[in-house]
Amino acid sequence: MKKLPILLLIVFLTGSVNWGYSQKYRNRQVSLFSYSCNIHQSIYKSFEEQIHLFPETDNRKADKIINAIKDRAWYMLKEGLEEETGMYILPINAYGKNFKYDAYGFPDMSINRALRKGSSRYYLKIDLTISSALNRKESSYGAMLSKDSSEKLEATMDENAILPRVIINVTTYSDKGVIPVQRVTGTAIASKPWIVSEETFNGIVNKEQLDESISDNVLGLVNAGLADLLRKF
User: Fold this and answer.
1) Tens of pLDDT, residues 167-218
2) Please, which pLDDT band fits residue 23 given cuts at 50, 70 and 90?
3) What is the pTM of this model?
4) Strands (E), 40-143
5) Contact, 107 vs 99, CB < 8 A?
6) C-alpha to C-alpha distances, 199 to 4, 202, 227, nearest whole angstrom
7) Which of 111, 131, 158, 225 would bridge with 40, disulfide CB 3.0–4.6 Å?
């Protein structure tokens, strides 16, 4: 019986620490200094079959598919992080020429340069990856199916089907230095194999609204990964 109060105290203190940590971002200005979007080859090949759906880009160096997905996913990530933590994420071009940008218009530089050129309390680095939950070469980290489950599923899948997963890594730095203050990863795997079609890109190449209960398209899967991410802040 004596152990119960101690256990409750530990639970209370742990909860308090987590709550206090998440509150550090509230009402703080946060700057994005790096944002990557990677689509592994096994998934990209299937997406590329629908490349005609995607609008042309202003920058010749920008990939049409990545451009559209990266841009749409950013607004989801920004909104989710702000609502969950109370942080205020500055516009991506807030520091103008002081920051360097990639072919998609997003900041792309080191934390060292961001600290020298920026004036925010916190800085964000975001890595969004879309890969196969079945291809073990693409699964060095994050959630994936077990080998047995993968083999059983592959045996019944259409040869043109894919089973994608999303991994979202968010690394936060403070204005005090280059050592991260927090690293959080959110992951999600499609609930069933996809045959890629126009519907796979609903909300990206058309004006279809995101149904948050469905993860069987790109935005839905990103949303599921984001939900997993936000639970850990």
Assistant:
1) 999 999 999 999 999 999 999 999 899 999 999 999 999 988 888 778 889 9
2) confident
3) 0.85
4) 88-89, 122-132
5) yes
6) 53, 5, 22
7) 131
Distance CA 122, CA 181 (A): 9
Residue 62 exposure: Cα atoms within 13 Å on the Cβ side = 22
Nearest-10 Cα torsion for 66, 72, 74, 79? -170
* 26 φ, ψ (degrees, to nearest 5): -60, 125
DSSP letter, residue 6: H
**Residue 64: burial class (beta carbons within 10 Å; 0-12, 13-18, 19+):** middle
Alpha-carbon span 29 to 12, nearest angstrom: 29
Structure tokens at 212: 């948050």
Locus of tokens 């058309």: 206
Contact, 218 vs 204, CB < 8 A? yes
Q: What are the tokens at 182?
A: 């927090």
Reduced to 3 states, what is the DSSP secondary structure of residue 101?
strand
Cα separations in angstroms, 41 against 46, 162, 164, 169:
9, 12, 11, 19
Residues 78, 199: Cα–Cα separation, whole Å: 24
